[in-house]
Amino acid sequence: MARRLVVSLLAAIAALGVTTAPAQAAVDFTGTVALNNCSGSVVRLPNSTAADKALVLTNGHCVNLMKAGEVVVDRTLPRARTFELLNGSGGRITTLSSTKLVYATMTGTDAAFYRLDQTYGQIQQSGSRALELSASHPVAKTDIRVVSGYWKRIYSCQVDGFVYQLKEADWTWRDSLRYTSSCNTIGGTSGSPIIDNASGKVVGVNNTGNESGARCTMNNPCEVDAAGKVTVRKGINYGQQTFDFVACFGPGTTLNLALPGCKVAKP
Question: When you count CB atoms within 10 A of the terminal residue's CB, does the N or C end of the chain come out lower?
C-alpha cells in the first residue's frame, strides 16, 4: 500500500515522457484529478446539486499513514490542498483547492473525502463534471476501469470477487474488491476511482496490492475469510468499495455519520 505513495524517481520517469496504454473503453479521465502523491476523482452523491461544494475522493493513506482505529472528521487544513482537474483525454483543465478534510480513515476501508472550494456547477462550467458514487454493492465479473489521474493511465479488468477481510500490516479492510490480474496497478495509482464501465458510476477506490508474495505485511496484503483462513495472492491488486458512503451524506454534501444506514468507521 505504501508503494502507492509515488516517489520522486517515478515522477522523474514520467517527466522523461514515458507514456502508458490508451483507454480501451468509453470511460475516460473526465472527473479525475492528480494529487501530488496520488490519484483521485471529483465525486457527487445521487442527490447533489450544482450549488453544492464538490467532493474529491482519494485514499486515507494519501492523507497520511493513519493509525488503525483513527478516523478524521471535518478537519480544517492549515493550508489548501490542490488537485489538478483533468479533461477526458487527460489534459489539465484547472487547479482545484480544498481547505476542508471531510473524512479520512484507514480503518475498515481506506478512503478520504475533501470538500472543494468550488461547486459542482463551477466544475461543470470549466468543461468537466463529477462522477456519481454508486449507491449499490458491485457484483462479481463486472467490467471496471481503474483511472489514475497521476499517471494518466486507465486499467481495464473485472471484479474478481470480494474479500471478507484484507489485512496489511496494522490495517484491516472489510469487503474489499479484488481485481482480475490485468489491473496491475502501480505506485501513484492510489486513490484512483474504480468505475463501472457500463454505468460510469464510481464503485470503489483503488488502494493496494500484494507485491512479493509475503503474508499480511506492508505492501503485501493477505485475504482472510470468515473462518480465519489466510490466502496470499502475489501480484493481485485491490480496492475499497464506496457505496456505504452514500448513506453518510446529507444535503449539500454534509457528512452526518449518525444517518441511518451509515456504517463507516466513526471517531
Answer: C
